[in-house]
Design goal:
Blueprint: H1 17-35, H2 44-47, E1 62-65, E2 68-71, E3 78-80, H3 89-95, H4 99-116, E4 123-126, E5 129-132, E6 138-139
Antiparallel strand pairs: 1-5, 2-3, 2-4, 5-6
Length: 171
């Protein structure tokens, strides 16, 4: 029987704690990020929050009917805003069921109204009805809510209740 001779005989191999820490954090993120949808407040099939970087299949079909108005709070004059004048069909389809994309569009409209008309605090309301997988249309966003005053963060809002996103009614 031969014995191995050398300086590392019977000693454990030591690794860098920095490498171990990096591997531990990286592996944890690879597991936790795709599973974060379990902690979201709303139905992901309805709002598509949390579908990026997940293991969920995007096999849903959404259709949306739009209506959007902007009101000048000083004069009380109401303008109808057809979103298809500023957005292409893919953007319209995505925004019809994405709270974050609607929030971004509202922020864009606020800036556009300020630049083009001088309206500084417009009242922006959206009446958006969405159908998921051929089911009856229902409102996704509160049509009476002034969307120019809402807040939304793609990192925090899915985990808390927001009153301007209406829940999916199960039929």
């Amino acid at each position: 029987m031969r014995t191995r001779k050398g300086p590392n005989k019977g000693m454990a191999i030591k690794g860098s704690p920095w490498i171990f820490g990096f591997v531990l954090i990286y592996t944890s993120l690879q597991i936790l990020i795709p599973l974060r949808h379990f902690f979201y407040k709303r139905d992901l099939q309805w709002t598509h929050e949390g579908v990026n970087f997940t293991w969920r299949m995007m096999a849903d079909h959404h259709e949306a009917n739009w209506g959007m108005t902007i009101e000048d709070p000083r004069t009380k004059q109401v303008y109808s805003v057809p979103p298809e004048t500023l957005l292409n069909s893919k953007q319209l389809t995505m925004m019809g069921h994405s709270p974050y994309m609607l929030f971004q569009y509202i922020q864009f409209l606020k800036q556009l109204m300020k630049q083009q008309t001088g309206i500084t605090n417009p009242v922006i309301k959206a009446d958006i009805e969405v159908s998921v997988n051929g089911k009856p249309f229902q409102r996704m966003f509160d049509p009476n809510c002034n969307l120019s005053e809402v807040t939304y963060s793609p990192f925090l809002s899915p985990f808390k209740d927001v009153n301007w996103i209406l829940p999916l009614k199960k039929n």
